[in-house]
Design goal:
Blueprint (H helix, E strand, L loop, with lengths): L5 H10 L14 H7 L3 H9 L14 H5 L6 H8 L20 H8 L2 H8 L17 H5 L7 H10 L8 E3 L2 E3 L1 H8 L3 H6 L6 E3 L6 E3 L30 E4 L6 E3 H4 L15 E4 L11 H8 L62
Antiparallel strand pairs: 1-2, 3-4, 5-6, 5-7
InterPro entries: Ankyrin_rpt, Ankyrin_rpt-contain_sf, Znf_ZZ, Znf_ZZ_sf
Protein name: ZZ-type domain-containing protein
Keywords: ANK repeat, Metal-binding, Repeat, Zinc, Zinc-finger
C-alpha cells in the first residue's frame, strides 16, 4: 500500500495554510481518509493540528466508526489519547445513517482485542442494539467469513443475541445460522448458532416454537478473494454486489444495498446501480424455491426488518407449517405475543425437503 508523504502534508498545512477540515475526495475529509487507510502518523498529526474529530461523511461515518472497522487497535488508541467524545449528549454511541454504532463495526471485523476494547467502552445493552434495519452486532459479525468464535460467543452470552431470530433483506430471509452458512464462517462458529434443543417455550402461552432445519440451510456465497470491498460496511463482499453507475469504484454488498438510500444517499435509486453476480460459489442450478425467492422482493420495500414488525405487512396465521413457509421457530422474543406458536402435535407437518420460505 502506498504511504502518504508526511513532509508533503506538513507543507500543505503549515506552509500553504490548506484548510485541515476542507471537504473533498472519496472520504470527504482528510481525517476520515487517514483513519480509513490506517495512516496512523497522519491521523495523529491531523488531530494535533486541530482537525475536527466530529466530521462525518454523507453516510454518517465518523472517525470513531472508521477506527472500529480496522483489524487493529492503533487508530482507536490514538483517538482515545485525544479524549475523543465517545457518546452523544444523550449518552448513546454515535450512529451512522444506517443506525450502526462503533460496536456494530467492531463486531464485524473479527478481531477479539478490538471488539472487546470497543465493547468495554459502552453499556452492555449496545451488544444487542439493532441498527435501523434491525440487524444487531451478531448479524454484522456473521457478514465476515473470518467471524471470530470468541466474539460470537460473547454476543450470545452477554448481548442476548437470539439465534432463533429471523431478519429480511430485500430478496431473502435470514437466521444467524443461515447467514453464517452463506457467508462461509467456520464450523466452530456454526456450532454456536445451533440450539441445544429444537423447540422452546413461548413466553406467557407455554406453547412451543419448533426449529425447522430446512430453513437454516444455504449454499455458500461466491467469495471474490478479498477483491471487492463494500464501501458502506467496509467488509469484503460475498455473493451478489452492486456497482454505483456514477461514483468511481463505489460498491455495496447485498446487505447494505437493501438499505438504500441510507447506505448511499447521493444515489439512492435502483436505477443508479448495476447488479454483479454470481451469488453462489458453486455452478449448480438453484432449487426452485430459492430461484423463485430471488425473483420476488419481500414486502419490506428494500429495507431489513425484524419479522413481526408492522412494517412487514400483515400477520401470520397460527399453526403454519414448513410446507407453507413455517416462520414459527424464529421470531424474536420481544414479539412473542404476536408470534406463531406451534403445538407439539404439529410436528408431523415438518418437511425436510423445504429449504426456503
Amino acid at each position: 500500500m502506498r504511504h502518504p508523504s508526511q513532509e508533503l502534508i506538513q507543507y500543505l498545512v503549515e506552509t500553504l495554510g490548506d484548510n485541515i477540515n476542507g471537504q473533498g475526495g472519496p472520504y470527504e475529509y482528510p481525517l476520515l481518509a487517514a483513519c480509513a487507510f490506517g495512516y496512523d502518523e497522519q491521523l495523529r498529526y491531523l488531530l494535533e493540528k486541530g482537525a475536527d474529530p466530529n466530521v462525518e461523511d454523507a453516510a454518517g461515518h465518523r472517525i470513531l466508526h472508521l477506527a472500529c472497522s480496522l483489524p487493529v487497535t492503533k487508530a482507536l488508541d490514538i483517538l482515545l489519547s485525544f479524549s475523543l467524545k465517545l457518546t452523544e449528549d444523550g449518552g448513546d454511541p454515535p450512529t451512522d445513517i444506517m443506525g450502526k454504532t462503533p460496536v456494530h463495526y467492531a463486531a464485524s471485523i473479527g478481531d477479539w482485542d478490538l471488539f472487546h476494547r470497543v465493547a468495554s467502552l459502552y453499556h452492555e445493552r449496545e451488544l444487542s442494539r439493532a441498527d435501523k434495519g434491525g440487524w444487531t452486532p451478531v448479524y454484522w459479525a456473521l457478514m465476515n467469513p473470518q467471524a471470530n468464535p470468541r466474539v460470537i460467543r460473547y454476543l450470545i452470552e452477554h448481548g442476548s443475541a437470539d439465534i432463533w431470530a429471523r431478519f429480511h433483506t430485500r430478496y431473502q430471509e435470514w437466521s444467524p445460522l443461515k447467514l453464517g452458512r452463506f457467508v462461509g464462517v467456520s464450523e466452530e462458529v456454526l456450532g454456536l448458532l445451533s440450539p441445544a434443543s429444537h423447540e422452546r417455550s413461548v413466553k406467557m402461552s407455554g406453547k412451543k416454537k419448533r426449529w425447522v432445519d430446512g430453513f437454516h440451510q444455504s449454499r455458500k456465497g461466491f467469495d471474490r478473494g478479498n477483491r471487492i470491498t463494500c464501501d458502506s460496511c467496509r467488509l469484503f463482499v460475498i455473493g451478489i454486489y452492486y456497482e454505483c453507475k456514477y461514483c468511481y469504484d463505489y460498491d455495496l454488498c447485498f446487505r447494505c444495498y437493501s438499505s438504500l438510500p441510507d447506505s448511499h444517499p447521493t444515489h439512492g435509486s435502483d436505477e443508479d446501480w448495476n447488479e454483479v453476480g454470481p451469488e453462489f460459489a458453486d455452478n449448480g442450478e438453484e432449487d426452485p424455491a430459492a430461484a423463485s425467492e430471488a425473483l420476488v422482493p419481500n414486502e419490506s420495500g428494500g429495507n431489513v426488518y425484524h419479522v413481526g414488525q408492522d412494517d412487514m405487512g400483515g400477520s401470520y396465521d397460527h399453526d403454519e407449517t414448513e410446507e407453507s413457509g413455517d416462520i414459527s421457530d424464529d421470531i424474536d422474543d420481544d414479539d412473542d405475543d404476536d408470534d406463531d406458536e406451534v403445538d407439539d402435535d404439529n410436528d408431523d407437518n415438518d418437511n425436510d425437503g423445504d429449504n426456503e420460505v
